[in-house]
Amino acid sequence: MKKVIVIGAGPAGLSCAYELSKKGVEVTVFEASNSVGGMARSFDLWGQRVDLGPHRFFSKQKEINTFFKELIKDDYTLVDRQTRIFYNGKYFHYPLKFGNVLQNLSLITIFKILWDYLIQTINPIKNPKNLEEWISNRFGKKLYTIFFKHYSEKLWGVPCTQIDADWAAQRIKTLSLTQAVISAIFKNNGKKHKTLVDQFAYPHNGSGTLYERAANSIENNKGSVRFNTPIKRVLLNPDNNKVYGVELYDGSIVEADFVVSTMPLTTLIKGFNNTPASVKTAINLLYFRNTILVYFEVEEKELFQDNWLYIHSPDVKLGRITNFRNWCPTLNKGKETTILALEYWCFKEDPMWSQNDGELITLAKSELLNIKLSKKEINIINSKVIRVPKCYPVYETGYQENLNVIIDYLKSIENLLPIGRYGSFKYNNQDHSIFMGLMAAEKITGNSSIDLWDINTDTEYQEEGKIKDVLVY
Ligand SMILES: Cc1cc2nc3c(=O)[nH]c(=O)nc-3n(C[C@H](O)[C@H](O)[C@H](O)COP(=O)(O)OP(=O)(O)OC[C@H]3O[C@@H](n4cnc5c(N)ncnc54)[C@H](O)[C@@H]3O)c2cc1C
C-alpha cells in the first residue's frame, strides 16, 4: 500500500490526489491556505461569485476533459468569448483580426503596418529567440509595437528582447490576411465550427467549483485535505537519494512513499540540505512575477461587453480588467451591480508590492477613470485588494538552461514529483496543471512512463481545436 503526500490543493495537486484516491491509494493533501483551487479558486464577494482574474477552461486533451466532465457534469455553460484590447480610446478584437485593426487606425499607420507585415513575411528572422523577434516575425514590427510591446513589458517587467520566444508560440494566435479576406466575403467568418478561441467552458459557480468538487471526492474516497498546513520542506535521505516525507512548520514530520510537490520550485529546492553548487546557482537565477488584483463593485450593469479587456496604453500601469458580469449570469446572483477585477503585475522588490490597500485602491480608481473606457459614469461602491505571489514564472532568455540543471537534479530523486505552475516553473494554464496531476498519479500507480517535465513544452498554438470535438461529447 503506497502512502502519498501532495503539497498544494490547486489544480495540479487536486487532480493528482483525486485520481490516486479513486484507485484506493492513501493520499493526504497539505494546503497552506484555507481554501482549494490555488490561483484558479472562486470565492464570494459582495454577494456575488468571482475568480482571481479571468479563468477560462479549454483543452484538446481527452483526459483533461474527462476530469472536467466527471466532476462538473452538465453544471457548466459554454461562454462565447469576447476579449478586446483597449488602446488609444479604441477597442480592437483579441486575438487580432486584420479587418478590425485596419478599421480602427489612421491611413498612415495602416500603410506602415501592411508594409512591415509584408517585409517580415518576405524576409523573416530565422530562429527567433526572444519575444520581440517572434512577434515581429508573425505580425510585422509596427503591429508588434502597437499591440504587444507595451502590454508584454507591463506583464513581464523586463524588455521583450529579454523574454524567451517559448512563451509566445503557445500563447499567441498569429494573424492571417487570408482569413481576413475570407471573413470579409463570407458572413459566418468563413468558419463552420467554433474553436477553443471562440468559446470556453465555465462552471456555473466559478472556475473553482472543479476543485471544490475534486476535494469532496478525495474525502469521500477516504483521502484527506488538510488546510492551513503549509509544508516547510521535503525530507530527502542522502543515503539513498529518496524523499521520505515532509516537515511542517510546527516541526512535526509526516512520512510517505511518494511526495508530489506543487509548492514553488524555488522553495522546494532551497529546503534541501547539501544541494550541488550548480543547482544552487541555477535556482537563484529563476524568478517569478507577482499579481495584484483590485476588485471594484460598480453601480452599473452594462459598462462594456467583454469577459476581459487588455489595457495596452503605456501611460497606465493597469494591465487587464475582468468584468464578471459578462461570464455567466449565475455569478452575479441576481444583483444589479458589476464586479470588476483590475490586474497589476510587479516583482516582490518593487515598491508597488508593499503598498497598502488604500494606496492601491486610489491608484486603481484613478487609472480606471483616466482610461475613460465607458461613457457612463463609474460609481464605485466597494473595493478589495488581493495579492497573488509568484504567479508568473519569468521565461527570461536563457531560463531553460538553468531549469535544465534543476530538472536533471530532480530526476535523480525518483519518488519526488514536482508538478504545477510554480511547482515545475512552467507557464501552465489549468489544463496543463491538471494533466501534470493526472499523469503524476499514473506514474505513482505504475501505469505510465511519461516524463512529467515534457508536459507544456510544445510550441503548438493550443486553441485551434473545435469545441464540438472536445467538451461536448
Ligand atoms: C490572473 C490569472 C489569470 C489566469 N487565467 C487563466 C485562464 O484563463 N485559464 C486557465 O486555464 N488558467 C488561467 N490561469 C492559470 C491558472 O490559475 C493556473 O494554471 C493554475 O491555478 C495552476 O495550478 P497549480 O495547481 O499548478 O498551482 P496553484 O493554483 O498555484 O496551486 C498551488 C497550491 O499550492 C499551495 N501551496 C504553495 N506552497 C505551499 C506549501 N509550502 N505548503 C502547502 N501548500 C502550498 C498554494 O496555496 C496553492 O493552493 C490564470 C492565473 C492567474 C493568476
Written description of the protein model:
With 473 residues, this protein is of the alpha/beta class. It has 3 domains: 225 residues, FAD/NAD(P)-binding domain, CATH 3.50.50.60; 96 residues, Orthogonal Bundle (protoporphyrinogen ix oxidase, domain 3); 106 residues, Protoporphyrinogen oxidase, mitochondrial, domain 2 (Polyamine Oxidase, Chain A, domain 2, Alpha-Beta Complex), CATH 3.90.660. 33% of the residues lie in helices and 22% in strands. The chain has 14 helices and 19 strands. The strands form 5 sheets. It has a 7-stranded mixed β-sheet with strand order 7-6-15-16-17-14-18, sandwiched between helices. Helix 1 packs parallel to helix 14 and helix 11 crosses helix 13. The longest helix is centred in the first third of the chain and has 16 residues. Bound molecules: flavin-adenine dinucleotide (FAD). Flavin-adenine dinucleotide binds next to helix 1, strand 18 and helix 14. The site of flavin-adenine dinucleotide has 36 residues, from helix 1, strand 18 and helix 14. This is FAD-dependent oxidoreductase. It comes from Mariniflexile aquimaris.
Provide a quick synopsis of the model.
Pfam families: Amino_oxidase. The protein is 33% helix and 22% strand.
